[in-house]
Backbone:
């Protein structure tokens, strides 16, 4: 009875936040075999050609554990039958549209495949893409495993961002049960609370930022949800950290070519392979003699590796053999008060 009450409260919370959230679901933590209702709020959206729209259609597929990238959608539902289309969303008023279905039946999913994300684009009657100025046109809904002790979900944002310096970003997330909730920005605690939901506003700063929502229950079980944002600096670099990553991303794109074409940047670096089993190399280029500190931390800021590395002008590499648990870590190169951060995925 207590679990049912909590689920109802979580669903109520999602509905109450719909004026702020672009896309959310009931239940809040869907599994592959669930009946689900997807809510899409178009209040801050427009079509590509900025035309008004009254009907919304969901172009949708899934991302499974057999996909190579988060752009590889499978079992796409793309019927186009106007008002009879099974992907036409129901207008609920106040810019809100819904689509209700059973996940396995709707996508005709085989029993053996593990679904990680539902992927959506939304279009109007004329098949024009509906976009959000802040979140683009691709939206992702995580699918959860029923045997996990605790789960978390970001309600806002639902994808990665490229904001302007100084722009306010409201972040909100929920947990599947009462827990200690905390937001971390590149390993630094920025907000915390006990309960099932946490909301906080951050101000976008330059560089790459990995924002993590971590929930810890009474049994010390933890679950992580995250997004990243990047504010471009006035330099021209070719780095994997500048590439967009998606919530619960399956893989990272790696570019082993390191180019520093602006004298304003004192250090650039890349990590390969990434994901890694713990054996990896950090390739970096510097135009300064300033000491460089290499730090690797977990998403909560706990140090797992620290060393001062070669710091004279030129291109260098540092090979590491680390015995780390599977998960997400942050690799940071620090020069005086400047810190450059990239995400590292460890897979076993």
Residues:
């Amino acid at each position: 009875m207590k679990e049912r009450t909590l689920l109802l409260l979580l669903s109520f919370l999602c509905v109450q936040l719909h004026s702020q959230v672009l896309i959310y679901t009931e239940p809040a933590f869907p599994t592959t075999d669930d009946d689900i209702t997807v809510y899409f709020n178009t209040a801050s959206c427009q079509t590509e050609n900025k035309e008004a729209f009254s009907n919304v259609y969901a172009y949708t597929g899934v991302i499974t554990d057999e996909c190579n990238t988060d752009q590889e959608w499978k079992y796409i539902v793309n019927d186009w039958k106007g008002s009879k289309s099974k992907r036409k969303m129901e207008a609920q008023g106040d810019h809100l549209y819904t689509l209700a279905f059973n996940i396995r039946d709707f996508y005709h999913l085989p029993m053996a495949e593990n679904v990680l994300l539902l992927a959506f684009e939304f279009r109007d009657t004329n098949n024009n893409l509906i976009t959000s100025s802040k979140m683009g046109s691709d939206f992702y809904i995580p699918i959860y495993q029923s045997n996990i002790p605790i789960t978390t979900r970001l309600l806002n944002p639902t994808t990665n961002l490229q904001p302007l310096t100084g722009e306010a970003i409201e972040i909100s997330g929920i947990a599947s049960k009462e827990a200690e909730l905390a937001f971390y920005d590149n390993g630094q605690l920025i907000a915390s609370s006990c309960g099932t939901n946490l909301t906080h506003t951050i101000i976008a700063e330059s560089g790459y930022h990995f924002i993590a929502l971590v929930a810890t229950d009474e049994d010390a079980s933890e679950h992580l949800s995250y997004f990243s944002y990047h504010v471009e600096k006035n330099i021209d670099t070719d780095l994997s950290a500048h590439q967009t990553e998606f919530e619960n991303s399956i893989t990272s794109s790696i570019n082993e070519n390191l180019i520093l074409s602006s004298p304003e940047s004192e250090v650039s670096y890349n990590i390969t392979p990434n994901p890694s089993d713990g054996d990896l190399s950090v390739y970096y280029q510097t135009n300064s003699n300033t000491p460089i500190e290499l730090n690797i931390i977990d998403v909560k800021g706990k140090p797992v590796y620290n060393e001062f590395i070669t710091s004279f002008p030129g291109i260098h590499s540092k090979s590491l053999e680390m015995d780390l648990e599977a998960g997400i870590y942050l690799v940071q190169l620090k020069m005086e008060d400047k810190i450059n951060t990239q995400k590292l995925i460890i897979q076993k």
